Amino acid sequence: MQRVKILAFLKFILLFLVAIGCGYLFFKGYYPYAILLFIVALFLFYNWFSQQLWMYQQLFDFSEATKYHDFTRNYAVRNKKSLEGKLFTAFNQINQEFKNIHSDKEIQNQYLNKVINMLDSGIVFYQLESGKVIWINDAFKNLFKTPHLGNLKGLQKRHPDLYEKTIALKIGKQQIETADSSKGKIKLLIQTSEFETKEGVFRIVHYQNINEAIDETEAKAYHKLLRVLTHEIMNSIAPISSLADTMHGHLLSIENRPELEDVKVGVRTIKKRSEGLLQFSKSYRMLNKIDQPNLSEVPILQLLENVNQLLEPVMLRQEIEFDVIVKNTKMLLHIDANLIEQVLINLLLNAIEAVKGVEHPRIILSAVELEDKIQLKIQDNGVGISPELQEQIFTPFFTTKKTGSGIGLTLTKQIMLVHKGNVFVQSEEGKGSSFTLNFVK
């Protein structure tokens, strides 16, 4: 840098001396020499001015490139000791430093995106005032079928209920909400955090699907409850049923006596009711006997054809239009065929019940292969299920039928859980219902 200062000073002195010499020759009357020296002075001034102008232009170009984050240019350094060489060397060093910072930032962004996209929970990061979405992860896109979200208000069109719940979230508090998703109606644990920068206030919202955790906890609780209940009921009722059966046999062997008729009726009633309670207990013991399914590769087409052959006569008798749709006939499921057949039969019988009295009753049984799962779906155009009942239909002992035991849908859900899958319902009163069985590939 010292050498550059000396050269600049010498150039200034030389120009100054030439100007003085030009003036001296002019006043002495040596006009030709004065003109010649004046031309030299102009040349030196033009050279110095052009160099300065060129330097300012380089600085301006570099500042513009920096402004627009363009650090791709490389400045050729011919002489490292010259002013130009030192300037270009500094430019190259700054560009390289910014490239390194940008590269590190890009690596961090890619790392962050990879980590966030590996999460099973949905995440949305947006600016509070404008609603502009900075990014959303893959889990959110897949869960709510939202491939792109430029502004949070865009969520209002696809999922208005979820949008309202997101807007109403309180900072730092967890909320459990029900929402529609690609997996049907699910339970979500939602929470949000907020931070502020010079660009505004930003929020990160976390949507965790807790359906599976709740299902697992409920299943364990139901199993324990049912094990205790059935054990106690059967231990108490079995002796009564046996004793009633013995007494009934003794009474039948006694001669017909009018005073014993009431006793016979009473004992017969006790016997029948005891047998009914025992059968009731045995049916619920089934829930605890499906923990170890006998899995094998089963062609879906064969599975659906078996169900179709079994229920087709019922459909024809009740004049129900029954369609079986399989887009890929080579699809396979790793399942216990007997258990899944039972699930399909239960759901189809419920659908048959739902379309009774409906004009042009129709039931569709379909199989679809998606990227990460296979779906079996039973759709009907029946009476539908109210939102309140949809929350309870998979609960043990709950039924809307006069003669139902409340085990069918509970058993269906338990069978799907032991297959590492799940069952979801979508329904609208007066328009029908759709039960979807999800199997992970």
TrEMBL record:
<keyword id="KW-0597">Phosphoprotein</keyword>
<keyword id="KW-0472">Membrane</keyword>
<dbReference type="InterPro" id="IPR005467">
    <property type="entry name" value="His_kinase_dom"/>
</dbReference>
<keyword id="KW-0547">Nucleotide-binding</keyword>
<keyword id="KW-0067">ATP-binding</keyword>
<dbReference type="InterPro" id="IPR004358">
    <property type="entry name" value="Sig_transdc_His_kin-like_C"/>
</dbReference>
<dbReference type="GO" id="GO:0000155">
    <property type="term" value="F:phosphorelay sensor kinase activity"/>
</dbReference>
<dbReference type="GO" id="GO:0005524">
    <property type="term" value="F:ATP binding"/>
</dbReference>
<dbReference type="Pfam" id="PF02518">
    <property type="entry name" value="HATPase_c"/>
</dbReference>
<feature type="transmembrane region" description="Helical">
    <location>
        <begin position="33"/>
        <end position="49"/>
    </location>
</feature>
<feature type="domain" description="Histidine kinase">
    <location>
        <begin position="228"/>
        <end position="441"/>
    </location>
</feature>
<keyword id="KW-0812">Transmembrane</keyword>
<protein>
    <recommendedName>
        <fullName>histidine kinase</fullName>
        <ecNumber>2.7.13.3</ecNumber>
    </recommendedName>
</protein>
<feature type="transmembrane region" description="Helical">
    <location>
        <begin position="7"/>
        <end position="27"/>
    </location>
</feature>
<dbReference type="InterPro" id="IPR036890">
    <property type="entry name" value="HATPase_C_sf"/>
</dbReference>
<dbReference type="InterPro" id="IPR003594">
    <property type="entry name" value="HATPase_dom"/>
</dbReference>
<keyword id="KW-1133">Transmembrane helix</keyword>
